[in-house]
């Protein structure tokens, strides 16, 4: 028997009213999102698998967040692949808004698989949580044919697990920048083209002397700074016992208010020596018989460091802004060594002087000199541009460039990876990139943008358990 003709059962005007009410409620109670349709760049014709895709279109849309109590999924979980976020969310969008606002812009594009409705694999950027979600399933029949029509799409989404071949470039900085939170980022410290970092080596004081007994001059304690000096006075340290190594030091001068000439500000040890059994005598003598009164005593230390050897003075340092010298820590109960770098007029690190040669060291610690930070920045790397290592041929995508700190963050690094000392250049202004060119000073293996990524600590601990340098711990093959 046919339906009762006196009831409309969903006339176009009734359907229009329902759609308008839904659109209005989405604008009132919804959240702003950015919809990114997937462009298929490359597809495996045999397996029918998308191997490379891009996202260069973006559409602002309103969506209702169905998960009012929080994200679904299992949250952040620790798996054999590391810490993974499994947050899931369900968005509801207007069917009419999608068909009128997005579909017409995608209809004639061959790289879009489906333009008439939302497609699994498309992305949604959720500004409220600064998170990129991927559509896993599209439900188009909930509610089920109210007044004989469908009004919304229900999009089940999970946090996007972006592949290396997925290129996101929408032109919206917040959207493009958020992608860097979901990919491994390598941090590199860069220096100018004409600049290069100084390097040095260090030994224990006992390892450079002919004897293995005795102590070194760990520091020189200034008792009286003197006055009236017109040139740095000479610092004489009495000789070490037979087969020992004589210590040496220099005076650092300063001008004080109300005094004529200069006074001694501190005494730096250029060589701690070795073999002393009693504190040597410190004699301070004016070079030109002008000024005097300086008095100091030597403090002996066991397990001190020998004078550092500068193997490469580097280039681009400023005399008035010497770089920081970092020395590894002493064992428990010891005293950490501290030192300063001396820069010559050629912009090179000429020597390293101790303010304290340390105590308690049993093995030679590491010693590093900060890279130079000189010269004006003429060119800047551009966000999302391709950069290339000149020596290794390594390429990467710029995630961030800090002009002031010379910190370059890159992602999607190809083999073999950037090496210290090589130049990294931009793609070039003729290709809508930059002509930036800087030298790599340091490369971090740690993803500092990921709060869960502890690559180096994990690797260090693993190496202490399984040593692959000697043999395969799991067998001979």
Brief rundown of the structure:
This protein has helices at 12-29, 95-101, 103-106, 173-178, 455-465; strands spanning 31-36, 39-44, 49-55, 59-65, 76-79, 82-85, 88-94, 123-126, 131-139, 152-159, 166-168, 185-191, 199-201, 216-227, 234-237, 248-254, 263-271, 282-285, 292-301, 309-312, 325-327, 338-343, 349-356, 367-369, 386-389, 395-402, 407-411, 423-425, 437-443.
Based on Cα principal axes, name the global outline.
elongated
Report helical residue fraction. under 10%
Let me know the number of strands: 29
- Number of helical elements: 5
Write the layout of secondary structure elements.
Blueprint: H1 12-29, E1 31-36, E2 39-44, E3 49-55, E4 59-65, E5 76-79, E6 82-85, E7 88-94, H2 95-101, H3 103-106, E8 123-126, E9 131-139, E10 152-159, E11 166-168, H4 173-178, E12 185-191, E13 199-201, E14 216-227, E15 234-237, E16 248-254, E17 263-271, E18 282-285, E19 292-301, E20 309-312, E21 325-327, E22 338-343, E23 349-356, E24 367-369, E25 386-389, E26 395-402, E27 407-411, E28 423-425, E29 437-443, H5 455-465
């Amino acid at each position: 028997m046919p339906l009762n003709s006196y009831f409309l059962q969903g006339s176009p005007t009734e359907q229009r009213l329902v759609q308008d009410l839904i659109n209005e409620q989405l604008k009132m109670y919804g959240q702003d999102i950015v919809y990114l349709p997937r462009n298929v760049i490359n597809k495996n014709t045999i397996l029918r698998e998308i191997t490379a895709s891009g996202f260069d279109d973006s559409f602002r849309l309103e969506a209702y967040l169905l998960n009012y109590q929080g994200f679904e999924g299992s949250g952040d979980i620790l798996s054999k692949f590391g810490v993974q976020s499994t947050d899931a969310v369900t968005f509801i969008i207007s069917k009419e808004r999608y068909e009128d606002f997005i579909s017409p812009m995608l209809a004639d594009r061959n790289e879009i698989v489906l333009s008439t409705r939302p497609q699994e694999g498309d992305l949604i950027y959720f500004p409220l949580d600064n998170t990129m979600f991927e559509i896993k399933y599209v439900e188009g029949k909930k509610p089920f044919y109210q007044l004989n029509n469908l009004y919304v799409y229900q999009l089940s989404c999970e946090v996007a697990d972006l592949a290396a071949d997925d290129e996101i470039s929408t032109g919206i900085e917040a959207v493009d920048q958020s992608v860097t939170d979901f990919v491994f980022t390598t941090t590199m410290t860069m220096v100018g083209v004409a600049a290069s970092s100084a390097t040095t080596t260090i030994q224990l004081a006992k390892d450079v002397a002919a004897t293995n007994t005795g102590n070194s001059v760990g520091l020189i304690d200034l008792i009286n700074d003197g006055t009236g000096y017109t040139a740095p006075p000479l610092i004489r340290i009495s000789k070490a016992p037979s087969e020992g190594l004589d210590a040496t030091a220099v005076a650092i001068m300063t001008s004080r208010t109300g005094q004529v000439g200069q006074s001694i500000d501190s005494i730096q040890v250029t060589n701690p020596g070795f073999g002393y059994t009693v504190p040597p005598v410190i004699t301070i003598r004016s070079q030109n018989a002008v000024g005097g009164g300086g008095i100091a005593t030597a403090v002996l230390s066991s397990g001190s460091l020998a004078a550092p050897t500068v193997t490469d003075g580097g280039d681009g340092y400023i005399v008035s802004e010497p770089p920081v010298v970092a020395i590894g820590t002493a064992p428990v109960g010891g005293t950490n060594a501290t030192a300063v770098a001396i820069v010559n007029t050629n912009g090179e690190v000429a020597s390293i002087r101790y303010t304290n040669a340390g105590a308690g060291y049993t093995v030679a610690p590491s010693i590093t000199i900060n890279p130079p930070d000189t010269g004006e920045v003429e060119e800047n790397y551009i966000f999302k541009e391709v950069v290339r290592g000149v020596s290794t041929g390594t390429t990467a995508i710029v995630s961030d460039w800090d002009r002031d700190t010379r910190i370059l963050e890159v992602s999607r690094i190809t083999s073999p990876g950037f090496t210290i000392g090589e130049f990294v250049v931009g793609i070039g202004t003729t290709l809508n990139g930059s002509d930036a060119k800087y030298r790599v000073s340091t490369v971090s293996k740690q993803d500092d943008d990921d709060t869960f990524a502890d690559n180096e600590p994990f690797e260090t601990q693993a190496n202490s358990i399984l040593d692959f340098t000697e043999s395969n711990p799991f067998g001979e093959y």
